[in-house]
Automatic annotation (TrEMBL):
It is found in: Membrane. One of its GO terms (molecular function) is kinase activity. This is histidine kinase. Its EC number is 2.7.13.3. Gene3D superfamilies: 1.10.287.130, 6.10.340.10, Histidine kinase-like ATPase, C-terminal domain, PAS domain. It comes from the Bacteria. It is a multi-pass membrane protein. It catalyses: ATP + protein L-histidine = ADP + protein N-phospho-L-histidine. It holds the Pfam family HATPase_c. Residues 237-300 form the PAS domain. Residues 176-228 form the HAMP domain.
């Protein structure tokens, strides 16, 4: 008998026992369910109707002339008459019906209250008899159901015991029948694979194990022929590879197919601050636990990250400290594959981790990216104003005078954009260590506020926002750069407009502080900013979670605004909380008399 047949018979036996147990249990549960449903229909409902009639009688004793309890009594009596299931119950229902008719006659004839109360007590006595009759029957049927359940439980226990006994026999016998030839085959294979004279695996039976032994004999014969040639080829290739990587100016680590480091060239050892003995011969998984740097180095091998469908994923970038400054190396993980000519297929042989110095490219890329991002952000606000003005010009309802005013505004914004290009070039020099060029002179904050409000006026009208300005007439002039201060205020107003609900109110206020300082604030009533993000929003490219769903900018405006204000000797900060709006404030030195 083959192993497959033995397993099938064992499973079939357990299946038959399981079906028998399940069928008996199903029939028993169905019978008990039918009995319970019968008890409910026959007795439980009658008891419930009796209780309803008793409650109605109690209400009639308190209010003899009330119509609702009498109607409730009739309805319950009618349902009880339709649910007669016990012997003698029909006579009791007929008696109740007669007593109810007598009571109705007494009520109609306005008989003395004592006669009515006497009739109600007779009704209560008859109702109690109906309830007691159904209660006794309910208890008897429940006892019968309990007896049937106990008998069914005994039968189920017998089935379970029988199934458990047969299952234990199968658990003991089946593995023995299956594993005995496999153990014998394992011992034969180990004997063949051990050092010594070559021999074949004996074939005892013509079953599945015998087929495996035959296949193993063919594989062992081929492996013996290839073992010596493979060892020589692997040694040659390894020596050749080591000679190549030792002379590369890039950091290079060679790992086998199991993740064990075979070679680390001098550049890699210098970057990792490890000797050859610390790396060669160790598993990548073990080395990754020693430090964060090694974990990042071997992460592409241990935790492969799925590439996006567009192939835009960039290899990891590692940062090292050399001669007191940071250097950047691009990590590339490559798989080593070789083509087996005899098998005519590609085989996996290991991994190569390379570290290429990209410090110069990294610095140039950061300067370029920051400059382009800054330019795009600074141009966005005036371009949005121009775009809105052009939409108003295309509107046929716009009168000629308004068209001229809008055209003048577009001309001013275009001139301002040309000037901003030069300013943004200065901003791009910040990352290279150069400062911002300032044209500091006496500036009236009223002029700054007026120009900024005129610039964002189309956006205010588009969202139906109300802007209030509060500038004391005695406010002194500020020592500031007019263009950059105006740019900061425009940026703060644009942010306030973006996050304010339609029809809301904005406030621009300027005050004089002690110590020859002027303070300007922009107040909105948008969603607000949590305290933990008050400093983060002034970082470049910072993103803050916004539950209200507002789409933020590129994360540059507030960073540039703070640099402009700080360079002029002032401060820029925010006061805000979720649900209360935001208030952005900045200070500038006041003009000394």
């Amino acid at each position: 008998m083959t192993l497959k047949t033995k397993i099938r018979l064992s499973i079939l036996t357990m299946l038959v026992l399981l079906l028998a147990l399940g069928g008996y249990a199903f029939q028993t549960i169905q019978r008990l369910e039918g009995g319970a449903r019968g008890i409910q229909l026959a007795n439980f409902n009658s008891v419930e109707y009796g209780l309803q009639m008793l409650r109605a009688v109690e209400q009639l004793e308190q209010e003899p002339t009330a119509a609702a309890p009498l109607e409730q009594f009739r309805r319950a009596l009618t349902r009880e008459a339709a649910n007669i299931t016990e012997r003698g119950e029909l006579e009791l229902v007929d008696t109740l019906t007669q007593h109810l008719a007598d009571y109705q006659t007494l009520v109609d004839e306005q008989a003395p209250l004592a006669q009515q109360q006497l009739k109600l007590r007779q009704l209560q006595a008859e109702i109690h008899r109906v309830v007691d009759l159904n209660t006794v029957s309910f208890n008897a049927k429940t006892q019968s159901a309990t007896t049937n359940a106990a008998r069914a439980r005994q039968m189920v226990l017998i089935f379970i015991s029988l199934s458990a006994a047969i299952g234990l026999v199968l658990i003991v016998r089946l593995p023995r029948e299956v594993l005995r030839p496999l153990r014998r085959l394992t011992a034969d294979v180990e004997d063949v694979a051990s050092p010594g004279p070559t021999h074949l695996v004996p074939i005892a039976k013509n079953d599945e194990v015998g087929a495996v032994a035959l296949a193993l004999n063919r594989a062992f014969g081929y492996m013996q022929d290839q073992r010596s040639a493979t060892r020589i080829a692997l040694a040659t290739e390894r020596n050749r590879l080591e000679s190549l990587v030792e002379h590369l100016d890039e950091g290079l680590l060679l790992l086998d197919e199991s993740g064990c480091v075979l070679l680390a060239n001098p550049t890699a050892r210098r970057l990792l601050d490890r000797s050859a003995a610390d790396l060669v011969g160790h598993k990548a998984e073990d080395l990754s636990r020693e430090s964060e740097l090694l974990h990042t180095l071997f992460q592409p091998l241990l935790e492969p990250i799925a590439k996006p469908a567009d192939g835009s994923a960039q290899p990891p970038l590692l940062t090292f400290r050399q001669h007191g400054e940071e250097v950047y190396y691009r990590l590339t993980a490559s798989h080593i594959v070789s083509f087996n000519k005899e098998l005519r297929q590609t085989e996996f042989a290991g991994h190569i981790l390379s570290l290429r110095n990209v410090s110069e490219f990294k610095k140039l890329d950061e300067i370029k990216s920051n400059f382009l991002a800054t330019v795009s952000h600074e141009l966005k606000t005036p371009l949005a104003s121009i775009n809105l003005s052009l939409m108003l010009l295309q509107d046929e309802r716009t009168d000629p005078e308004e068209r001229l005013r809008i055209a003048d505004g577009i001309r001013e914004e275009t001139t301002r954009l040309l000037g901003m290009v030069g300013q943004l070039i200065d901003v791009s020099r910040l990352d290279a260590g150069a400062g911002i060029k300032l044209d500091v002179r006496s500036v009236a904050l009223a002029d700054v506020v007026e120009y900024a409000v005129d610039t964002v006026q189309p956006q205010l009208q588009d969202k139906e926002l109300c802007l209030e300005t509060n500038l004391p007439p005695t406010l002194p002039a500020a020592r500031a750069d007019l263009e950059k201060t105006t740019w900061v205020l425009i940026n703060l107003l644009a942010n306030a407009i973006r996050y304010s609900p339609r029809g809301a109110r904005l406030t621009v206020q300027a005050t004089q502080l002690p110590g020859h300082e002027l303070q300007v604030s922009v107040q909105d009533y948008g969603p607000g900013i949590p305290a933990e993000y008050h400093e983060r929003i002034f970082q470049r490219f910072a993103e803050v979670p916004n539950p209200a769903g507002h789409k933020g900018g590129s994360g540059l405006g507030l960073s540039i605004s703070r640099e402009f204000i700080s360079t002029q000797g002032g401060r820029l900060w925010v006061e805000s909380a979720p649900g209360t709006g935001s208030r952005f404030l900045f200070t500038l030195p006041a003009e000394s008399n």
